[in-house]
Design goal:
The chain is built from eight helices and 26 strands. With 410 residues, it is of the alpha+beta class. The chain has three domains: 120 residues, Beta Barrel (Lipocalin); 96 residues, Quinohemoprotein amine dehydrogenase alpha subunit, domain 2 (Lipocalin, Beta Barrel), CATH 2.40.128.120; 161 residues, Glutaredoxin (3-Layer(aba) Sandwich). The strands form four sheets. It has a nine-stranded antiparallel beta sheet. It has an eight-stranded antiparallel beta barrel with strand order 10-11-12-13-14-15-16-17. A seven-stranded mixed beta sheet has the order 20-19-23-22-21-25-26, covered by helices on one side.
Length: 410
């Protein structure tokens, strides 16, 4: 693409110091660094080197690791080992592993998710500091973009402290997680990798007060423009309202589902447990990053309001191997301590066949709110992470207020 040489140059000149900088000990020929500590790493994703942090603790047969979502530890490993220079880390809630060799303070390996290996390189070194005086870019921006899901715009939410910045792109499915980084060579280079939803975003402020964006999110490089939200509003450009994206054909018809749970027992919307209850039906998948954002929130709502008549049903759509042996879903349930109903509904490509009442069901997750009469009263598409800041709080308040309102109705 036309901007690839510039993006590569940015990675080579500025990003290398952040992601692949050489530690002083290794440069001096000292003994290799221990496995425990903070690692500055890159993941090679579809031609882009995406920087990220990895924290490792322990040794021998008791090794654990954490990725980071901005400053927040995220996606911890369940178990791992380090022996004879070989590191193995398992992440069962994503059915993924990180295997690597470690020598002379460097880590070389691969992140393997859904059968696809992503090369990983890392060193033990502190992150690079910002370079130069950074222009202000904090605030909420709008990115005009026509997506296959019917969107006409995305949101860009930026928080800035001097030459450091965090940002998140909020789409109809949810956000990208927290992309973080520093200002260097005239641009902010922000990135995110927690084992999934990789993202690299280069933001270059323009003389007309817009932002030139180069986004690499694992689906190819995108050249985008962002304008301040107030400017977009005057032009009549607005992101899709997540409460209006998906609907049902007939709101006078009860919302029907009939799928088996993990013990093989058929569960339907007519079961006694759902009668005269407010039911939240969540269309999700254990492979879906924004479903991981949503799951602990739904569990907290269930724990708080189950006594008031709330039921939650997760309709889980998985790849064929996981449907045959849902190890990843079981780990997902265990990771978030889910106690509400979870049903195996089919493959993601079958979602519209399995749920024919839905209209424009094309985003993950999608939530249907059923009143005590079994009818759909509201919908909400996607889910946010803390990376969306005030928008994340707004999403959580909106969902809880919808549930509380329905619980007060007969």
């Amino acid at each position: 693409m036309t901007h690839r040489p510039r993006l590569t140059a940015a990675i080579v000149s500025g990003l290398t110091a952040f992601a692949l900088g050489t530690s002083a000990a290794a440069a001096a020929g000292d003994a290799p660094s221990p496995i425990a500590g903070q690692w500055q790493a890159t993941a090679d994703v579809e031609g882009a080197a995406i920087p990220f942090r990895l924290a490792i603790t322990g040794d021998g047969e008791a090794v654990r690791a954490n990725f980071f979502d901005g400053a927040r530890p995220s996606n911890p490993s369940a178990d791992g080992s380090f022996r004879d220079g070989r590191l193995h880390l398992a992440f069962p809630s994503y059915a993924a592993v990180l295997d690597a060799t470690v020598a002379d303070g460097r880590l070389e390996g691969a992140w393997v998710l859904a059968g696809k290996a992503t090369p990983i390189h890392a060193v033990q070194a502190p992150p690079a500091a910002p370079a130069g005086t950074a222009p202000p870019i904090g605030g909420e921006w709008v990115i005009p973009y026509k997506s296959p899901k019917g969107e006409v715009a995305w949101r860009l939410i930026v928080r800035q402290t001097g030459g450091s910045a965090e940002a998140s792109i909020l789409r109809i499915d949810g956000d990208t997680g927290t992309l973080s980084g520093v200002y260097r060579d005239g641009a902010f280079t922000l990135s995110h990798f927690t084992g999934e939803r990789p993202g690299l975003l280069v933001i270059t402020p323009q003389p007309d007060h817009s932002l030139k964006l180069v986004l690499h999110d694992g689906s190819g490089e995108k050249d985008l423009t962002a304008v301040l939200a107030a400017v977009a509003a005057r032009a009549g450009v607005a992101p899709t309202d997540p409460t209006r994206h998906t609907s049902v054909q007939d709101r006078a018809e009860p919302f029907r589902f009939a799928f088996k749970d993990l013990d093989g027992k058929l569960v339907t919307n007519t079961d006694a447990r759902f009668r005269h209850k407010v039911v939240v039906v969540d269309v999700m998948g254990s492979w879906c990053p924004n479903c991981h954002d949503e799951a602990p929130f739904l569990q907290a709502l269930y724990a708080r309001h189950h006594k008031d008549g709330l039921e939650i049903v997760a309709l889980d759509f998985e790849q064929p191997d996981q449907l045959a042996d849902p190890r990843r879903l079981r780990a997902f349930i265990a990771r978030y301590g889910l106690t509400f109903t979870v049903l195996l509904a089919g493959e993601p490509k079958e979602v519209n066949i399995r749920l024919p009442q839905a209209v424009k069901l094309n985003a993950w997750p999608t939530t249907f709110f059923l009143g005590r009469d079994g009818l759909v009263k509201a919908t909400h598409v996607g889910f946010t992470s803390p990376g969306s800041g005030a928008r994340d709080l707004e999403t959580r308040r909106e969902v809880e207020h919808t549930i509380e309102r329905l619980l007060t109705q007969n």
